Amino acid sequence: MTFRLAATAALALVLVCAGASRADESLWSASGLAETEASSDARQITAWVLETGDNQGLPFLVVDKINARVLAFDRQGQLIGTAPVLLGLARGDISPPGIGERPLSAITPGERITPAGRFMASMGENLSGKGILWIDYDAALSLHPVITTRAADRRLQRLASVTALDNRISYGCINVPAKFYEEVVQSTFNGTAGIVYILPESLSLPDVFFPAPGGVASPPT
Question: Of the four, 119, 135, 192, 206, which is 20 to 30 A from 94 by CA?
Fold first, then answer.
């Protein structure tokens, strides 16, 4: 997709999602995939990407919503890092229509969804000039360092907890540890586009990534 300059409503939403804090935590790992606690779905989609070359020679991320985890891969498909994530408050796999154009006051808790799918991503900025990874500009969906401006959200504690049950808090954006963002995401996506695969939690992998009839996988859109 085209990553345009700021449109007011979309970037207002990202601003709430993305005022980054540098109070970071070593919450990410650069271990190999064989040593990583990746889910079967994450392993399946990664294997499919590598077998088909669906990443088109670009770096890519796999976001596992059920387990609240992100895996980062370089152009060759080598795992370069993994970290916990914070996700949209509401469960679901499809963004509400026009979500990126609506004021925050019009977005109900049940609409704060991190959508599933395959997205072309690129580095950009929010209204404050903070770096973010745009995943879907029209839906105001981005990945960025965790924010800590609202203490009641306990975002650092949520990232550090051993369970994924408390990792639902954002308007839909994906929060990652600041160190992971700086050392993995920023360095990997700097100067290039990449692919972000967000795994479903309500739909199935075939529903989202392999919709061709007869069970034949086709490149997701």
Answer: 192
pTM: 0.83
Q: Are 168 and 86 in contact (CB under 8 A)?
A: yes
Looking at residue 25, its amino acid is E
CA distance 38 to 102: 35
3-state secondary structure at position 105: helix
Check: CB of residue 42 under 8 Å from CB of residue 134. Answer: no
Please list the residues that pair with 145 across neighbouring strands.
176
CA distance linking residue 90 with residue 81, whole number of Å: 26
- Three-class SS state of 143: strand
Q: How do the pLDDT tens digits run along the chain, 221 residues long?
A: 333 333 444 444 544 454 444 434 446 666 666 666 789 999 999 999 999 999 999 999 999 999 999 999 999 999 999 999 999 999 999 998 888 888 777 889 999 999 999 999 999 987 778 889 999 988 889 999 998 888 988 999 999 999 999 999 998 999 999 999 999 999 999 999 999 999 999 999 999 998 765 544 434 44
For β-strands 168-170 and 87-88, DSSP reports them as parallel
Residues 6+ apart with CB under 8 A from 111: 90, 96, 99
